[in-house]
Write a structure and sequence with these properties.
By secondary structure, this protein is α+β, with helices and mostly antiparallel strands. A 5-stranded antiparallel β-sheet has the order 8-5-7-6-9. Strands 1-2-4-3 form a 4-stranded antiparallel β-sheet. Strand 3 and strand 4 form a beta hairpin.
């Protein structure tokens, strides 16, 4: 297993099919047996905690990407202010969707995981991210050019909150996932809504956050 610590709250690991079998699990078990898939996941999390001191507390955001020779899993500790977290399409309170086989024998894509996790027919339209330092927002600005999304930046209780509204006409679920993944390298997903930010936060940029950051800070 390959482990990459992204930040204090996010870790990424790659688990090959050989790794899975060497740990005493079969593909069929992790695809079709929820208890076994959860057992494997928590075994991996215990190993990650031992190697990189990543203790799991509270709800998690889980992203799963299928690879030719295994799976790549990104786990982020969620910043949960209230029950709004439960309505997020990225939230997973169980592991029944993490290892799920499709009819062609491949792992389900993250786009399908997102779509299946929604309890309604709504679109995955927005996310909020929390940055500990403004410098982190500056560092990531140059990597945001390709994403068609509306952005706004607020400060609240010494933390910086980026609200992202995806352009549903121009962005696919893959685009949204890629943007989410890049932002997760520097920030953590948060359940703070735009309405609460507007009411309790102080606006820094109300639109085009990364364009303005590059204009004033680069």
């Amino acid at each position: 297993m390959e482990i990459e610590r992204i930040n204090d709250d996010t870790v990424k690991f790659f688990l090959s099919y050989v790794d899975i079998e060497e740990r005493g699990f079969t593909r069929e078990e992790i695809w079709n047996n929820r208890e076994r898939s959860e057992e494997l996941f928590w075994e991996m999390m215990d190993e990650i905690n031992e190697q990189s001191d990543f203790a799991v507390e509270g709800p998690l955001w889980i992203q799963v990407h299928s690879k030719n020779d295994g799976i790549e899993v990104t786990v982020t500790k969620a910043v949960a202010d209230n029950d709004e977290l439960l309505n997020s399409p990225m939230y997973n309170e169980g592991l029944n969707n993490v290892f799920k086989e499709q009819s062609d024998g491949t792992f389900e894509s993250i786009e399908d995981l997102l779509r299946n996790s929604l309890e309604t027919d709504g679109e995955w339209a927005e996310n909020t991210f929390i940055f500990n330092e403004f410098e982190d927002v500056i560092q990531i600005a140059s990597r945001m050019h390709q994403f068609q999304a509306k952005t706004a930046l607020y400060v609240h209780e010494d933390d910086y909150y980026l609200h992202v509204e995806y352009d549903l006409d121009l962005m696919t679920n893959e685009d949204k996932t890629n943007m989410f993944s890049v932002l997760s390298e520097f920030a953590r997903p948060a359940s703070m809504t735009i309405h609460r930010l507007q009411e309790y936060g102080k606006v820094i940029f109300d639109k085009d956050v990364f364009t303005q950051i590059e204009k004033y800070f680069n």
